[in-house]
Automatic annotation (TrEMBL):
<protein>
    <submittedName>
        <fullName>EAL domain-containing protein</fullName>
    </submittedName>
</protein>
<feature type="domain" description="HDOD">
    <location>
        <begin position="242"/>
        <end position="432"/>
    </location>
</feature>
<feature type="domain" description="EAL">
    <location>
        <begin position="3"/>
        <end position="248"/>
    </location>
</feature>
<dbReference type="Pfam" id="PF00563">
    <property type="entry name" value="EAL"/>
</dbReference>
<dbReference type="InterPro" id="IPR052340">
    <property type="entry name" value="RNase_Y/CdgJ"/>
</dbReference>
<dbReference type="Pfam" id="PF08668">
    <property type="entry name" value="HDOD"/>
</dbReference>
<feature type="region of interest" description="Disordered">
    <location>
        <begin position="50"/>
        <end position="78"/>
    </location>
</feature>
<dbReference type="InterPro" id="IPR001633">
    <property type="entry name" value="EAL_dom"/>
</dbReference>
<dbReference type="InterPro" id="IPR013976">
    <property type="entry name" value="HDOD"/>
</dbReference>
<dbReference type="InterPro" id="IPR035919">
    <property type="entry name" value="EAL_sf"/>
</dbReference>
Length: 460
């Protein structure tokens, strides 16, 4: 659970603030090369205490005192809306959010209340991009506050732009980035709009890119960044640099499903140069160090073990064929995060053991394997000879595996109401714990290539 830390427990309202829990999900942002370059952090605000209503100052988005933190005023507690704002900000700077960003910048929606609260300055300006809603009330006070924060190196994003309007015109001079909503913007207007904004030096993000055709159009128009899940669709297999021939990858996975000899594994791995590269790196990592540098493939196999190789191969199935850092590969990161989330989540459920955790991991890994191989998902799963519960979970969302897969997909979309509804069938899991497990899984996926820690944690 994302519990908000309290700096001074004796302070008025601190005990109640300790019960305010914000939840967070992340959505990938890709660059023109199709690599991860940032995440939008989607926030589920904590519920206000029963009967609490924001006061007049909060309703206008103006701080009670422009130079002092309201908490510091004698005998004055922050109003409920202000406490929610600070709960969100305190949650954003906690280690679980920072870990899930895996070194990438964060884009986060900010309200008037957040902008006018001085606690926003606890967000590192070099790591957070502040997104302004097209519905935000723009007046002289807001512009002055944006200018003040800009002077402290905070950067602003115009969010969900569909067409130029009065709010857009007033905020554009202060924005470094513009997000254009592809799902609602007029396609006829896009060429002129993007041309004008590029000429003005704005960095452009195409929002809602869930289809390959939309990505190709936005790329052709000159967009710099792309937000959406187009990369996890089967069509993207035509544009990805597949890390090894399809039959070689499938042969290796099928071989690992049995009890291969070292000689058999060595011969098969030699057909997968990207796997060999990462296996050598893994074998020489601190977590698996054998006392000397591993220099041959056979030594790497012996040092790593077939179980770890099997797990690693399942993830590297999604790796881009280019020699890029795995924490920047969106498809691999999505697969690894889903797999780890499902493994962590099922361990919280009653009567779940090692076999159930392994099945949950496999379900997450292969939930969109058609994005790599194309063709039907069912035919690919049959080739992989996965168990019936795993196939039923992936193809028909049946059983607890299907339920966990559904909830992690809802979390990826930040569909909080759907997550909450599903939690009623996943007791004792709560929305807050689901969100926290998602962040933990994302952090694990982001460091898997830098040490053996992640793989050792899977095998524990």
């Amino acid at each position: 659970m994302t519990t908000i830390a309290i700096e001074n427990p004796s302070q008025t309202g601190a005990a109640d603030d300790a019960q305010l829990n914000a939840s967070f999900a992340r959505q990938p942002i890709l660059n023109r090369d199709g690599m991860l370059c940032g995440y939008e952090i989607k926030v589920r605000a904590p519920d206000l205490p029963a009967g609490a209503e924001p006061d007049a100052a909060s309703a206008t988005g103006r701080a009670p005192d422009s130079t002092a933190d309201a908490d510091a005023l004698p005998g004055r507690a922050p109003d409920p809306a202000q406490r929610v704002v600070r709960a969100i900000i305190r949650g954003l700077i906690q280690s679980n959010v920072r870990g899930a960003l895996t070194g990438h910048p964060a884009y986060v929606d900010v309200s008037r209340e957040m902008l006018f609260d001085d606690s926003i300055q606890h967000l590192p300006a070099d790591r957070f991009m502040l997104e302004l809603s097209p519905l935000i009330e723009v007046d002289e006070a807001l512009i002055a506050r944006i200018v003040q924060l800009h002077g402290r190196r905070y950067r602003f994003v115009l969010d969900e732009v569909t067409q130029p309007n009065e709010t857009f015109a007033k905020l554009l001079p202060y924005a470094e980035v513009v997000k254009i909503d592809f799902t609602h913007a007029s396609r006829a207007l896009l060429p002129k709009l993007t041309s004008v904004l590029k000429s003005a030096g704005k960095l452009l993000i195409a929002l809602g890119i869930d289809a390959q055709a939309d990505f190709e159009m936005a790329h052709e128009l000159g967009f710099d960044r792309f937000q959406g899940y187009f990369f996890a669709r089967p069509q993207t297999s035509m544009t990805r640099h597949v890390s090894a021939p399809r039959h070689a990858l499938l042969n290796l996975l099928q071989l690992l499903a049995g009890e291969p000899t070292v000689a058999q594994l060595e011969a098969e791995l030699k057909l997968n140069p990207v796997l060999v590269m990462h296996l050598m790196k893994l074998a020489n990592s601190s977590g698996l160090a054998v006392g000397h540098k591993v220099s041959t493939l056979r030594e790497a196999i012996n040092a790593t073990g077939t179980n770890r190789i099997a797990r690693w191969t399942q993830l590297l199935l999604y790796a881009d064929g280019r020699k890029v850092a795995l924490e920047d590969d969106p498809l691999l990161q999505l697969a690894a995060t889903r797999a780890r989330f499902m493994e962590l989540a099922i361990e919280r459920l009653p009567e779940a053991g090692r076999d159930e955790a392994d099945a949950a991991f496999l379900t997450g890994v292969f939930s969109f394997v058609d994005a790599v191989f194309g063709g039907s998902l069912e035919s690919t799963l049959n080739v992989l000879t996965l168990s019936r519960p795993i196939q039923a979970g992936i193809l028909h969302r049946q059983g607890v595996l299907g339920l966990l897969l559904t909830v992690v997909e809802a979390l990826e979309r930040a569909a909080w109401d759907e997550v909450s509804s599903l939690c009623a069938r996943l007791q004792p899991l709560t929305v807050e714990e689901i969100a926290l497990l998602g962040l933990e899984a994302g952090a694990w996926a982001g460091v898997a290539d830098r040490s053996a820690e992640g793989l050792e944690r899977i095998e524990d």
